Amino acid sequence: APRYHSFVLEVTRRTSRLAASWQCLGAVHGMLNTDNMSISGLTLDHGSFAFLDHFDPNFARHAKEPDSRYCYRNQPQAARWACERLAEALVPLHCTQIADMLREVTAAFDAEYSAAFDEGMRRKLGLREKAPRLVEDLLSLMERTDADWTCTFQALTTASSQHEASLELCRRCRAGTEDEWEAWLRQYTEMLVSESTSWQHAGRAEAMLASNPVVVPREWILDK
User: Fold this and answer.
1) Residue 35: active-site member
2) Closest by CA position to 137, among listed 84, 191, 89
3) At what angle do helices 178-194 and 162-172 cross, to 10 degrees?
4) Other Cβ atoms within 10 Å of 23 Cβ, number
5) Candidate list 35, 110, 179, 223, residue with the active-site label
6) pLDDT tens digit string along 77-116?
7) pTM of the model
8) Which of 17, 61, 96, 214 would bridge 101 by S-S if both were Cys, CB 3.0 to 4.6 A apart?
């Protein structure tokens, strides 16, 4: 029936947006079994959740899967897999050939996730336009330099100049990475200039403050 076909795709889109919000926040659910997913686009059972400290895409709190199925990097794929299993379970209702339905679910999830992640990261960087390459370069740099997820975005939010941001970021990252951070910050500054804004622009900081938390539950707190 068409309404159940639409239902599966709507659940898929909601789930993809949820997964994108986790990735932007640096949150790791930790145990994305299908019974911990919901048709409302929310997740259940957050006993294993954690927030990233130093950025490690393979971080997964307490997960024991040898393939790192529930680590930060693989969360979107785990969420999409759950949507695919929902599509299979509801075949008697949506009456679509399962191969066709799975292709639609995959396409819907990937498109919605990509758009939501790019939009979320745009807001985190206080930009007016999406900049996936700039974001990709930033995440790669954060991984290489042991950057703290929350502190990195806070430094970018509160800095009033490229120099100020560089000092704060390099203070918190692995020694000897100053040139790499300066190179990325130049790209970021060029993006701001291209959008007719600046480090001091009030709108930039305001937008970033709404997307970048100052405090998150740290791993050592959650372990207590």
Assistant:
1) yes
2) 191
3) 150
4) 22
5) 35
6) 999 999 999 999 999 999 999 999 999 999 999 999 999 9
7) 0.91
8) 96
